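User: Reviewer 2 asked us to show a designed sequence for the structure in our supplementary figure. I'm pasting the structure tokens here. Could you produce the per-position amino acids so we can include them in the response letter?
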């Protein structure tokens, strides 16, 4: 009989292995495309269909994106469906999983393709200095997306209804007011349609700011444990973690785009391209350099995120004044989500933006 303690570790290990394998296949596919005539062939085919430069570019992106998606589909299916069912975490049928994936692709296409067209326009217009206007455009887009996501995007995937439990609403509202956070509503969403895992968060900015609580959390956790969850979330707001993370993200984005622009200009000639930064066939190299940059800077971003998690935990403890409830909430979250409570230090350092459960409980004193 399997040791129950080892199950979360096995789940986490298999999940991480599939994620890394998918990233390697995706990276290798892009490298092969730019290092062989394939990229030029795809561009030529796109130009034979569309004379317009931007339509040819978008067709190139769609074809290349579809090819990479097909190559990584086995990993996506294994991670998102098979593994979740293997460990009895999923409520999805295979039809439901496919439907969610198709819906996600459609939303990504509607949002992403116009943005990519704009970025390509900036690349053609500003050439060697493209990284600066592209960085500004990405920043503005991310702000708009955070503002609109709770009211226009999330409801495409989940049903949100105001929470009817007056006690929960009163308790959560009190915690939010104590932290100086004003929200537009407290909503329950049908997280259980896909998973047995539990989660909650506050989303949006400005008038779209709202609290969302998964039905799995509401059904499995006590009111006191829900208090602890939201005291932690309010801690992020009270400590201005969101704005600090956005500032860091903006800075690292601009730095990454600048470094990518330098490396991209240098590497274009390695594979025999014309030297024009907006040559369509050479553009997958941008994705390659950005992926490398993201991989190398992930530990820095994750380290800061883990620091903020500790700060939010302390805020929660100072708010609820009950270490036992906080500890119980942490252990129940770990059990419900099948989290590895003590991952390998290297795995936590490179891949985790939250400290391990055991470290968070220990830090609580």
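Assistant: Here is a per-position design you can include in the supplement:
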């Amino acid at each position: 009989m399997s040791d129950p303690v080892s199950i979360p570790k096995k789940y986490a290990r298999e999940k991480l292995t599939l994620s890394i394998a998918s990233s390697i296949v995706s990276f290798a596919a892009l490298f092969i495309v730019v290092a062989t005539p394939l990229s030029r062939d795809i561009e030529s085919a796109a130009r034979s269909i569309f004379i317009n430069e931007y339509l040819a570019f978008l067709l190139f992106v769609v074809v290349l994106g579809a090819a990479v998606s097909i190559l990584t589909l086995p990993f996506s299916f294994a991670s998102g469906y098979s593994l979740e069912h293997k460990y009895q975490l999923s409520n999805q049928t295979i039809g439901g999983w496919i439907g969610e994936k198709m819906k996600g692709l459609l939303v990504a296409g509607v949002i992403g393709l116009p943005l990519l067209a704009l970025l390509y326009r900036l690349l053609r217009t500003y050439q060697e200095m493209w990284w600066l206007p592209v960085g500004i455009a990405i920043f503005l887009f991310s702000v708009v997306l955070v503002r609109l996501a709770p009211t226009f995007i999330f409801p495409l995937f989940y049903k949100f209804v105001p929470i009817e439990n007056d006690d929960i609403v009163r308790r959560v509202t009190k915690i939010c007011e104590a932290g100086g956070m004003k929200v537009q509503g407290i909503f329950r969403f049908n997280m259980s349609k896909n998973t047995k895992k539990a989660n909650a968060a506050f989303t949006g900015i400005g008038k779209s700011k709202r609290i969302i609580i998964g039905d799995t959390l509401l059904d499995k956790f006590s009111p006191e444990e829900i208090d602890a969850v939201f005291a932690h979330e309010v801690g992020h707001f009270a400590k201005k973690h969101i704005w600090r993370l956005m500032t860091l993200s903006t800075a690292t984005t601009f730095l990454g785009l600048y470094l990518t622009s330098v490396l991209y200009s240098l590497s274009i000639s390695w594979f025999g391209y014309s030297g024009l930064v907006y040559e369509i066939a050479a553009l997958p190299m941008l994705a390659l350099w950005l992926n490398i940059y993201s991989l190398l800077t992930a530990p820095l971003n994750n380290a800061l995120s883990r620091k903020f998690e500790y700060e939010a935990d302390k805020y929660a403890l100072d708010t609820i004044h009950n270490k036992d409830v906080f500890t119980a909430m942490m252990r129940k979250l770990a059990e419900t989500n099948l989290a590895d409570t003590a991952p390998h230090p290297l795995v936590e350092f490179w891949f985790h933006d939250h400290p391990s459960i055991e470290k968070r409980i220990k830090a609580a004193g």
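For the response letter, you might also mention the following. Strands lie at 160-162, 186-189, 200-203, 210-214. The chain has one domain: 6-158+238-363.
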